[in-house]
Write a structure and sequence with these properties.
The structure holds 2 protein chains of 2 kinds. Chain A is 39% helix and 18% strand. By secondary structure, chain A is an alpha/beta fold. Chain A folds into 2 domains: 119 residues, Rossmann fold, CATH 3.40.50.2300; 162 residues, 3-Layer(aba) Sandwich (Rossmann fold), CATH 3.40.50.2300. In chain A, the strands form 2 sheets. A 6-stranded parallel β-sheet of chain A has the order 2-1-3-4-5-11, with helices on both faces. Chain A has a 6-stranded mixed β-sheet with strand order 7-6-8-9-10-12, sandwiched between helices. The longest helix of chain A is centred in the N-terminal third of the chain and has 17 residues. Chain A is elongated. The N and C termini of chain A lie far apart (60 Å). The N terminus of chain A is likely disordered. Chain B is an all-alpha fold. Chain B is built from 14 helices and 4 strands. In chain B, the strands form 2 sheets. In chain B, strands 1-2 form a two-stranded antiparallel sheet. In chain B, strand 1 and strand 2 form a beta hairpin. The model of chain B has no long low-confidence stretch (mean pLDDT 89). Classes of the chains: A alpha/beta, B mainly alpha.
């Protein structure tokens, strides 16, 4: 071990040494990324129960994104609490290779994980490649799908009925609006985000048939639309200018710009958050303007999957988390502005659960 | 004589040696500053990689190396082609679309796709070349802008023409006859060294021959070192700019092809972004020399691939290696300059001492 360390150090020095014969005087730096270390209160460090060992492979952003990945972690925490699960986590880096994702999953399986969750659809391919090599391990992919014809009998694909949750916040937006115009800001114009738009519009029209919905996407296709607060702010400001007084965003990290736009539009204007309860993580200035958030319960899905392993009946194939399964919903943290609407929203919720209302998935 | 030669080799090794010590130091300090254990980090990083990681490292080295050569072609000419990222993105997409459409079959399809990739890469970088030669637009500005145009264009075509699957979109899958796979040095599950990594070898040799044994290579180096001298010796600078820009783009078009025909089968979630920028960093690290860049690419690939192990067993974030990489590049650039000055001073002193000695002998 010691010896190896030394040898490799020598090899590395040699590598750089040979790299050093130089020509031009061009200068420049490389993009050194930000340094993020795992939080010290990591539940996986303290967990030592005798429950199943669960692997959680994060999407880019990792723990601390206050949204998608953190939600999965919350589900894991609950699993550790409820049935003494132990766990192992793996963080993704920006621009990583497909092989890095595969390696992460294999590492977890080799480290004794019996249930492995890939957080985000980007794990669809890698899980498909790794799962056949570990038939005794169960896998799950959040928002995932099976990319080939061979069905994997040890993989669960956990999807969400985002349109149903969006329908509910659409009702909230329409009821709250005084101008008769509301807005929607999507991060990227993809099929997934169109589901949010379709549900939102349908919900608003159900509550107030003559409501006008302004729709704007930050990017047509480039995923940077999910990490562009300035773009989110510009889009939302445009909608407030056109008379909208409630704007719902499905734009991930760009959402903070939407909240800022609502703050600048002033009192009587609102924004609606997405994925997690964004009222809880917003700044103090933004909080009064956040009407509600559409909840996508990645934590529920993660917990359910872990629980199915613990119970010995692993989830496999496709599962859609909808209103009935409490997989989507809306938040009521900002009580002073949402409490008078909850009765109405909940009645629509009942109708969707009973099947009386079918929410469209395409705008 | 031999001792002088030894000293000169020793001096040229000094800069990279200082650089590696610096980058190790800075990384260690950063890790210690955030409260993790540097010892864990280095012992994990310098463990001998598992077989599947050795395969990954080789595959990544090949792709990074191609990117580095593409960057070096521009650098040697004094052109800062930051547009590698856009060039290989759009070229990879074009090649994947072309190969997926299966106009040809088997190896002919692969060969044609390689030509398509090179042509598209060359055309894309050619835009920047034309802008520079006709309008005097700095290639730094135009290639950065072309990067985002390329990414938006690819996204648009992917959305409108791509195959939708689950929450993702990708180009048509390659037919079985056009996937080359590779050579599995270990067990099958450890992965394959992709067949087209051979491109990296060919590109490396080609670069060396072009630079040192052709008229064009001489013109290139001459123009890079002094434009006015090049002009005086009958080199047409505009023609050189356009050609070297397009050559750089053509090579950039090849960057991702090993992965495409090795395992990815389509342009979609498995496309690896960021290789273009890594290539620029490695070209700086390797001082634009074929062999130097090879070691630089190997080092970067080793760090990136091995960093996945950090998640297990240490609490250091894998992103930390980006700091190591960044510092290595910066330190090489800086120390090279410092050592160069010191060496000049040393030579001057030697000469003056010898002169003084000679004077003393005669008087």
């Amino acid at each position: 071990m010691r010896r190896l360390t030394k040898l490799s150090a020598v090899a590395a020095v040699a590598a750089l040494a040979l790299a050093g014969c130089g020509g031009s005087d061009s200068e420049g730096g490389s993009g050194s990324g930000s340094d993020k270390t795992a939080a010290s209160d990591d539940v996986c460090k303290s967990a030592d129960g005798d429950g199943p060992k669960i692997g959680l492979a994060y999407d880019v952003g990792g723990r601390g994104d206050q949204s998608f990945n953190d939600s999965a972690y919350a589900g894991l925490e609950k699993a550790v609490e409820d049935f003494d699960a132990t766990c192992v986590e793996g963080e993704a880096t920006d621009g990583e290779a497909e092989s890095a994702r595969e390696d992460r999953l294999r590492n977890m399986a080799e480290n004794g994980a019996v249930a492995i969750v890939g957080v985000g659809f980007a794990y669809s391919e890698s899980v498909n490649a790794v799962a056949p090599d570990f038939p005794e391990v169960n896998f799950a992919v959040i928002d995932g799908f099976d990319p080939d014809e061979d069905a994997n009998d040890n993989v669960a694909y956990l999807g969400f009925a985002e349109e149903q949750g969006s329908f509910l916040v659409g009702v909230a937006a329409a009821q709250k609006s005084k101008t008769g115009t509301i807005g929607f800001v999507g991060g990227v114009n993809t099929e997934l985000i169109q589901k949010f738009e379709a549900g939102y519009t349908a919900g608003a029209k159900a509550a107030k048939p003559d409501i006008k919905v302004e729709v704007q996407y930050i990017q047509e296709s480039d995923l940077s639309g999910f990490g562009d607060p300035a773009g989110g702010k510009a889009a939302a400001t445009g909608e407030f200018d056109k008379g909208a007084d409630v704007v719902y965003h499905a734009a991930g990290g760009s959402g903070s710009g939407v909240f800022d736009a609502a703050v600048e539009a002033g009192e009587g204007n609102f924004a609606i958050g997405v994925d997690s309860d964004q009222y809880l993580t917003a700044t103090d200035a933004q909080k009064p303007f956040i009407l509600t958030s559409m909840l996508k319960r990645v934590d529920t899905a993660t917990y359910d999957f872990a629980k199915s392993i613990d119970a010995g009946k692993p989830l496999v194939s496709y599962t859609v988390y909808d209103l009935k399964a409490d997989g989507v919903g809306y938040s009521t943290s900002n009580k002073s502005v949402i409490s008078d609407l909850t009765a109405d929203i909940d009645s629509y919720k009942e109708k969707i659960i009973s099947g009386e209302i079918t929410v469209p998935t395409k705008p | 004589m031999t001792s002088e030669r030894l000293r000169s080799i020793g001096l040229s090794l000094l800069a990279p040696a200082i650089a590696i010590v610096l980058s190790i130091l800075v990384t260690t300090v950063v890790i210690a500053a955030v409260g993790s254990s540097p010892g864990d980090f280095w012992s994990t990083m310098f463990e001998v990689p598992k077989p599947r990681l050795r395969v990954d490292i080789l595959n990544q080295t090949a792709m990074i190396y191609i990117a580095a050569v593409a960057a070096a072609i521009g650098f040697r000419m004094g052109l800062f082609n930051i547009g590698l990222e856009g060039q290989y993105t759009i070229a990879s997409f074009a090649a994947a679309s072309f190969a997926g459409a299966a106009y040809l079959s088997g190896l002919a399809n692969v060969a044609a796709a390689i030509i398509v990739a090179m042509a598209v890469g060359a055309l894309w970088s050619g835009i920047a070349g034309v802008l520079k030669t006709t309008r005097g637009v700095s290639e730094v500005i135009s290639t950065i802008m072309l990067n985002s145009i390329a990414i938006t264009l690819v996204g648009y075509f992917l959305n409108t023409r791509g195959v939708k699957e689950g929450n993702t979109v990708h180009t048509k899958n390659l037919e079985a006859g056009s996937t080359l796979g590779g050579f599995a040095p270990f067990e099958d599950r450890d992965g394959e060294i992709w067949a087209l990594t051979i491109i990296a070898v060919l590109v490396g040799i080609g670069f060396w021959v072009l630079l040192n044994h052709t008229r064009f290579g001489f013109d290139l180096r001459a123009s890079g070192q002094s434009e006015s001298a090049a002009l005086a010796s009958g080199i047409n600078p505009k023609r050189m700019i356009l050609i070297s820009m397009m050559l750089s783009g053509a090579v950039a078009g090849l960057i991702w092809l090993p992965a495409l025909f090795g395992g990815a089968r389509n342009y979609g979630t498995s496309f690896q972004a960021g290789l273009g920028f890594l290539g620029i960093a490695v070209a700086l690290l390797g001082r634009n020399r074929p062999l130097g860049m090879l070691f630089g690419a190997l080092l970067f690939a080793f760090l990136s691939v091995k960093s996945n192990d950090l998640t297990f067993g240490t609490d250091v974030s894998p992103s930390i290696v980006q700091i190591t990489q960044g510092v290595a590049v910066l330190a090489v650039v800086v120390t090279y300059e410092v050592v160069r000055r010191w060496r000049t001073r040393l030579e001057q002193r030697t000469v003056s001492r010898e002169l003084a000695g000679a004077n003393g002998a005669t008087s």
